[in-house]
Amino acid sequence: MLVELAALLVKWRPAFARHATWVRVVTVLLGLVLATGRRTVTASIVARGRQFGPWAADYLAFSRAPWQVDRLFDAVVDAVLDTEQRFCLGGRYLCVAVDDTGLPKTGKCIRSARWMRDPMSPPFQVNLRWGLRYVHLAAILPLHRLGLDPRAISVGFAPAPSIKKPGSKATNEQLSEYKKARKKHNLSVVAVQRFAQLRKHLDATGHHDLTVLAIGDGSYTNCTVLRDLPERVEYLGRTRSDLALHMPAEPGGRKIYGQRLPTPEAMRQDPERPWTHTELFYAGGVRQVRFKEVGELLWRTGARRRRLRLLIIAPTPYRAPGHGRRRTYYRDPAYLLTTDLTTPAEELIQAYLGRWQIEVEHRDLKTGLGVGHAQVWNDNSVARLHAAHVALWSMIKLAALRSFGLTRSEAYPVRPAWYPQEPNDRASQADIVEVLRAELRGYQPHEPWPKLPASPEIKAARTRKRLEIQNS
Prior knowledge:
Elements: H1 2-9, H2 19-34, H3 41-47, H4 56-63, H5 70-86, E1 93-104, E2 114-117, E3 128-141, E4 151-159, H6 172-184, H7 187-204, E5 211-216, H8 223-227, E6 233-238, E7 246-248, E8 257-260, H9 264-269, E9 276-282, E10 285-297, E11 308-313, E12 317-319, E13 328-330, E14 334-338, H10 345-353, H11 357-368, H12 379-404, H13 429-441, H14 456-471
Parallel strand pairs: 1-5, 5-6
Antiparallel strand pairs: 1-3, 2-3, 3-4, 6-14, 7-8, 9-10, 10-11, 11-14, 12-13
C-alpha cells in the first residue's frame, strides 16, 4: 500500500513551486492522518517525532509557500478515472455527489468563520454553531456493478463562507449591496464553479466524451444550478412535492409554457399513471424499487426553458432493527429532477441511491480523520490545510483499493469477534489507517491473541450448565 500511495503522491509534485515544500506538506498531512487524539499540526509534529526540532516551517508551508490546493484534487480525479479503468468500472458518466458541510471552530480570529445552523439540532429548536463552511464534491465509484456498495472519493473541498450582514446602522445602499453579494456568493454558485473547474480539467486531460453527472439534494435543485450548468454536465437532484411544472407548448407559436401539470405528489397518487418495477442495488443487496417517470417538462421559476425529466420513487417498506419488532415502516417518497433526457431512468435512480456515500464520507472525514481540528487562522492556511487533508485521504483510499482490492482481505488487521463478518465487506477507515501506520513504522498489523485453555473449574461449570439445559 505504501508503494502505491507514493506513486499517487508523486502526481502532486507539479502543484508546488519547490520540491522541499511538496515534501513538507505531504509529511505534515501524513502526520495528521497517523496522529491520535485531536488532529492538529502539533499532533502531526509529535507523531513524526520532530517535537524537539524547529517547527515553524510546518505552519509556513500552508500560509506562505506558493502552491494551489485545487491541483491536488485534479490529481485525485485522474487517479479516480485510472482506478475505474483498472476495475473495469468506467462508463460514459462520472457520478459526482455534491453537498455542503461545516467544520466547528472556537477561535474568533478566523475571518471566514461564521455562525451556521447546526444540522444536529432537534426539529423543535434550531441551534447555531460557529465554524467554517465548505462545498464538498465526491466521485462515486459504481461498485454496484460488481455486487458491492459504492464508495465515495473526495474530488473537491472548497470554502464557501457566507457574506457578513451589515449592522443595524447600515444604510440602504449597504443593504442593497449585501443582497447583491449574497446572490453572487452562496453554496449554489460555488458548486457551479466547481463543476466548471472539473469539466475544464477533464477536457484538458482528454476526457471530452465523459459526461459529469452531478447529484445533489434539494438545496442545490434551484435556478442557480439548473440555469448555469456547464456543457456536458448533467444534474440529478431531489425536489419538492408541490413543484409547479408545465408541459412544453405546441411548436409553431410564440408560447413557451403549455398546460400546467399536477404536482409531483398528485402524480404519485394518480392511479392512471402506472408504477414501473425494477431491481436496483442499495443497502448491501439487490432490492425492488417502484418508480414513475414523466417525460420532458418545464419548470418556469427554476430552469426556465431548459427541458427536465421527473422521476418519482415510491416509499420503501422496512422493519426497524431490534428483537421482537414486527411493525413495518415506510420511508418518504423521493421526487427527482434531472436535466438528462436520454439515460434510462433505472441508471439515474441507481446513481442517486449511491449519493448517500458522501454522507458516510462526511462522518469519516470529521469524526474519524479529524478534518477541521487543526488550529490555523491564516487565510491561506484555512483554505489549504483542511482541503489538502481531505485530498490526502482520497489518495490513501485509492491506494488501499489498488493494493488490497475492493473487499476486506487478509492484509487488514483481524477484527473483533463481535464485528459482523461479511464476505463482501469493505475495509473501514480504522483498518486502512492501521495498515498505513504499520507500514510506515515497519511492523505488521497485530495478530489476534492465542486462545487460552480454560481451567478445570471453568470446564466443570460449563459441563454442569450443559447438562442442566439438556434435562430441562
